[in-house]
Amino acid sequence: MTIRYRFENSLYENVGDKGLKYDDILSYAKENLERHHKDLLEKRKNKTLGFFDLPYDKELVNKINELKKKYINIKNVVVIGIGGSSLGNITLNDAINGVYHNDRDTGLPKIYFADNVDPEKMAHLLEILDPKETVFNVITKSGSTAETMTNFMVLYDFLQENAPEKIKENLIITTDKENGNLVKIAAKLGLDTFVVPYNVGGRFSVLSSVGLVPAALTGVDIEKLLQGAADMDKICSVCDIEKNPAYMAALIHYLLYRDKDVNINVLMPYADNLASLSDWFRQLWAESLGKIDNKGKNVGITPAKSVGAIDQHSQVQLYIEGPFDKLITFIEVEKFRNTVKIPEVFTEIKGLNYLCGQTLDTLINNEKKATEIALTSANRPNTSIILPVIDEYHVGQLFYMLEVMTAFAGELFNIDAFDQPGVEAGKVATYALMGREGYESKRKEIEKELKNKKQREM
Ligand code: PA5
């Protein structure tokens, strides 16, 4: 089974002037699709873009399977990374193992994420962990991100204090082959090391060693995940707008932005275990597409996170009566892995008994349908991604489709979807403020700027 993309509610026929005419989509595609498709294909062929080929790295899968044998009895996995070096991992864990994974008795290792440099969260993590029973996977492509390196230093020191004999055994490094500080540390300590391919950006790296190592250690079937992605690759390689859901979705977003001022992209899964997918997607979409285009224009569609049915009681009022600036994309799960029956209790109460005997799965899917109907009646463009079931195979498909959609949107916007100068600027300012060697003049520049600024504080 394959995930599907439904888009009729983004069209004129269902939402009037706020939507797109199907013929306009087709005629844009007729004129431009081949050119953009060729550009992407060329970047894939000449290895500028490595994410396309991640599903086929058998050697990596074998290496991870070997590593897994070493950690059969391990109790915890800690991922030390941030942004593209952690959001995909959180998504994978939540989607496949579920948001309550750490509290369930599954026999699988628990997983923790040291992403932010929040002192309270880190103090609590140190309280929870038994260093002798914990594997630490430090993930940073650049090998120098301040947050990741700081968290690594704290946890390394914790290991040194409490279980120095485990340092070599329980530390895994995932980083660039040769650049950055981490690869040097790994070599010096003789640690197990995985490579982040040079041509795969952080936010496109979930199907590389970045996402696969922690996932495999916590029971996720990475072969099925990659198989899903590979099968989606076949679908998303077709240069036909009516057969390629990634291209169609990107084009709908682009044309709604260009012609209808739709500049907010809401991803709204109706499943708690997919809530963090929206966080992963926010980074993918925002960092890839929030750019200055080839004519010097600032472009981008702001991604927003929403979770159904929770946000029906929080955001949907705005979606229905607020500005016409959003395209809502629902994710619907066709068949949940669990079903919970609504019990036959309070049957005498009229306003409640309609629920008796039904299931939570029917309710949540009807809530999605109801929101879709309400939005469409209010002429609010919306689309749906339909996931047959939340499992490795379909989550692999979903990751891959959303990545191709983002890459293709980059072509439509005429921008480089694969750099992140804005993020780098923030990293440099942090280095300067924290006194890193080589950043002295940047620090002076910042200090001068701050001094000249009139403070307004209340
Ligand atoms: O997508 C990106 O490249 C970034 O957002 C990175 O994932 C993030 O900044 C972390 O970088 P690194 O993996 O180098 O620590």
Automatic annotation (TrEMBL):
Isomerase found in the keyword field: yes
Entry coiled-coil feature ranges: none
Superkingdom, natural source: Bacteria
Any GO BP annotation: glucose 6-phosphate metabolic process
Listed Gene3D superfamilies: Glucose-6-phosphate isomerase like protein, domain 1
Enzyme class: isomerase
Active site positions: E287 (proton donor), H313, K427
Record keywords: Cytoplasm, Gluconeogenesis, Glycolysis, Isomerase
Record bears the keyword Isomerase: yes
Cellular location(s): Cytoplasm
Pathway stated in the Swiss-Prot or TrEMBL entry: Carbohydrate biosynthesis; gluconeogenesis; Carbohydrate degradation; glycolysis; D-glyceraldehyde 3-phosphate and glycerone phosphate from D-glucose: step 2/4
Role this protein plays: Catalyzes the reversible isomerization of glucose-6-phosphate to fructose-6-phosphate.
Name used for this protein in its record: Glucose-6-phosphate isomerase
Gene: pgi
